[in-house]
Amino acid sequence: MAIKNKKLNLKDKYQYLTRDMAWEPTYQKKEDIYPDEQFEGIKITDWSQWEDPFRLTMDAYWKYQAEKEKKLYAIFDAFAQNNGHQNITDARYVNALKLFLSGVSPLEYAAFQGYARVGRQFSGAGARVACQLQAIDELRHSQTQQHAMSHYNKHFNGLHDAAHQHDRIWFLSVPKSFFDDARSAGPFEFLTAISFSFEYVLTNLLFVPFMSGAAYNGDMATVTFGFSAQSDEARHMTLGLEVIKFILEQHEDNVPIIQRWIDKWFWRGFRLLSLVGMMMDYMLPNKVMSWAEAWEVYYEQNGGALFKDLERYGIRPPKYQDVANAAKNHVSHQAWGTFYQYSQATNFHTWMPEEEEMTWLSEKYPETFDKYYRARFEHWDKEQKEGRRFYNNTLPQLCQVCQIPVIFTEKDDPSVFSHRQIKHEGERYHFCSDGCCDIFKNEPEKYIQAWLPVHQIYQGNCGGADVATVVEKYYHINLGVDNMEYHGSPDHQRWLDIKGLKPLQSNSEKKTAA
Amino acid sequence: MSQKVFIAFQDNDNARYLVEAVMQDNPEAEVQHQPAMIRIEAEKRLVINRATMEETLGREWDVQEMLIDVISIGGNVDEDDDHFILQWN
Description:
Chain A contains 24 helices and 6 strands. By secondary structure, chain A is mainly alpha-helical.
């Protein structure tokens, strides 16, 4: 037969290898097989309308992923063999990786679990296949990130127990609770939260300018895993947009539900990205762009185009977008100022920017840096140089929803903290913003269960009653070695040794010495 | 309001051909060079044609090969055997 050797086109291949491998159940009811598909109120009338624009099938998936992995691991080998860590701009940079490994990589693993779970819960074959591929991607990201950073773990402190720390350290409850919130939601909310709001609208801000920054700071391993992961991300983002369009096209009753989820998950994602803002503005010695500039390109411009496109479905831009846009000139400074003060309880070092970095911040934030932040930072810098490095020993009030300390300021007055509180069934709850307070009001039963690190410490659930015990015994941080001030730390010393071209001790010698 | 679509590639050998092909088919697009990456943006629509890529590369090229070098995209995707299109409606 002539037809036998004809290569299938993309559309036919996709049809054969995804939709045509599904079947209609005969001896079990669909609602029994997919019990979670109904309860959120989303109405799907025709799953066959689901579009996967990349039309990726398993055979092509393995082929391209294998090629990505080969490239990636060749670079990891080269990086390790050539002592790539010695070629980064400055060892302060490694602290961004410590934050990444304990704050972001576990989210990749959480995403893997999330997609594996929801991929089981949709009765549409297209959605199931897309979720399955993404689950494998996310597992790959978690693994490649750990492999990339394991090289740094041989040479710098604080990278030794990221998975344990992710579940315990106070500020890591911010990313952890974000994903736990999504994973404990229904399958459609999970996709709106992660595929759309996070992947499509916000992850560019993490993976594109920050990874470009890693390249600019000589970190070949990180930029390579970052961009390798991001090549999957382009597919995830496309899925995220298609998911939203599909749900909105299925039934008009879906519109208000999706709008509420977009409002919620935009705000949660925006709060989460405060961490990335400070990584870009304060933790990259060579700067690519400021957080405000990244926000303008990747949210205001790209997000603006996106929400204009979604207008025809009756979707408006997320509520409190104006607050988020105004905050772009503040969040990184407020977050870094907080981490600086609480560095006795972080798994990485902090420091005050050097003079030329302060100048850069003044240039990039002409309206805010000198006016609101410079004086405080210069004061802290002076105190540190005179031997009085400032640490704040009062545990902060956390927001019940995003779990970030109440450190952000009012949109119209950067000298006033934004703080909201409400009473629910006799208990008082605190919030960092109207955005988080609204999320609570929509689902108080969910958020009253939040595991808030500060409350837990005070209740005696974190191993002890003083900072040293909690930090060392419960968090597994080596106090004063892995964290606190960068200047004078063992990492700093080691970096000076590397750059001073002194003969280095090998790792085995170092261990014997210790 | 301006509505830009964009695509970002790793700044590597493959991407040079992709950028060349994209610029041939989308002369209005703007190319931005950033550390380790190349970002191309265009108003409303950007197309990558297999035919142009094959001519630029001098070999057969599968549209899905692009998946190896792409970093990020913005816009609705329409892909088939002959092209990859990004657009806003």
